[in-house]
Design a protein that fits this description.
Bound molecules: protoporphyrin IX containing FE
Largest sheet: 10 strands, antiparallel
Number of helices: 9
Strand content: 15-25%
Radius of gyration: 19 Å
Number of domains: 1
Number of strands: 14
Shape: globular
Structural class: alpha+beta
Length: about 325
């Protein structure tokens, strides 16, 4: 990690608890709009303060990610070592790679605060960047996804979360930054609900009501947990920080999970995705993919708050 005596760059507000509400905005930057977009990025922290200061108990946060295709256009070189386009995966199930230059991850205890900041940012970006995806997520009872399982339990916290998420000495020019992978999943609720609770628990690898992890000798190798608990070559578990949110439209029968995972190295999330979509020696694919279809896929670098406040131009 960087020297504690020098002023370390301030990360964006990634390391905050799960909230009741979230809005996820994906933008594509118009050709020639780079200067205008850079100006808006420099104002993000001020706009966030304008909305958040009025209601501190709302715990509004905003994290901006920047995609590989637009990085050089906006900021020139150098670029973050791990930044590249999201790699599509083709196994029994498909993980697409879809357009996305900027990602805005808004979180608060109330949707109105996310909505107000989303509106201010979008108004400032109008004509310069267009929204290609917008998802409004909500807390579903006791942190459950729409499949009915508690989602987020095994997230690291405290120092372990910072270690999992923040870039350190391996890329000193971008220390304090992070990488975020997003995927929008739609669930086949009829198919899922046709399973017994025991079959559903086997798909996840945890119990449904009480959210207890299954013992190793009972956990199926194609369960979500079995495929996502991964280790480095020294046997240390590799962790990421997830802020998944349910979303949906009852009128069009749309029920989904917006997956959002942060890591200091995108390879950790990519390994999990490979396990899920391409399988392992013991499993063809993650059983939840039989009931969940990925419709988007993106990778972004999340620069520090200091970088965003005063972004370099090419
Ligand atoms: C349809 C989308 C998804 C749903 C509904 C879902 C749901 C869940 C649930 C219910 C758990 C168990 C509770 C917990 O610890 O959070 C979990 C754990 C986890 N998921 Fe997912 N997930 C999804 C996608 C993903 C993706 C795409 C990744 C990685 C690329 C991922 C990585 C993980 C990890 C690392 C854990 C914790 C494993 C552990 O340490 O026990 N999930 N997920």
């Amino acid at each position: 990690m960087g020297s504690p005596t020098t002023s370390s760059p301030e990360p964006q507000a990634i390391l905050t608890p799960l909230t009741e509400a979230s809005i996820f905005l994906t933008f594509v930057v118009e050709p020639g709009a780079e200067d205008a977009v850079r100006d808006v990025l420099a104002d993000v922290s001020g706009l966030k303060r304008s909305v958040g200061f009025r209601l501190p108990e709302g715990a509004l946060t905003c994290v901006v990610g920047v995609g590989a295709a637009v990085w050089d256009r906006l900021f020139g070189t150098p670029r973050p070592a791990g930044l590249h386009e999201f790699r599509a995966l083709d196994g029994d199930h498909h993980a697409p790679s879809t357009p996305g230059d900027l990602h805005v991850h808004l979180r608060a205890r109330r949707l109105d605060m996310c909505f107000e900041l989303a509106q201010l940012l979008t108004t400032r970006l109008r004509g310069h960047a267009r929204i290609v995806d917008e998802v409004h997520g909500f807390r579903f009872f006791d942190e459950r996804d729409l499949l009915g399982f508690v989602d987020g339990t095994e997230n690291p916290d405290g120092a372990a979360a910072a270690r999992a998420v923040l870039v350190g000495d391996e890329d000193p020019g971008f220390a304090g930054g992070s990488y975020v992978v997003t995927q929008k999943y739609l669930h086949d609720m009829a198919g899922w609900n046709a399973l017994s609770t025991e079959e559903q628990e086997n798909a996840i690898g945890r119990t449904k009501l009480q959210d207890i992890e299954m013992p190793e000798d009972r956990k199926p190798p194609d369960s979500h947990i079995a495929l996502n608990v991964i280790e480095d070559d020294k046997g240390q578990q590799l962790q990421i920080l997830r802020f998944n949110m349910p979303f949906g439209h009852v009128g069009t029968d749309e029920y989904g999970t917006y997956f959002v995972g942060y890591a200091h190295d995108p390879a950790v999330i990519e390994k999990m995705l490979e396990n899920m979509f391409l399988g392992t020696a013991d499993a063809h694919h993650d059983r939840i993919l039989d009931f969940s279809t990925a419709t988007t896929g993106n990778l972004y670098f999340v620069p520090t708050a200091d970088f965003l406040d005063d972004p370099p131009s090419p």
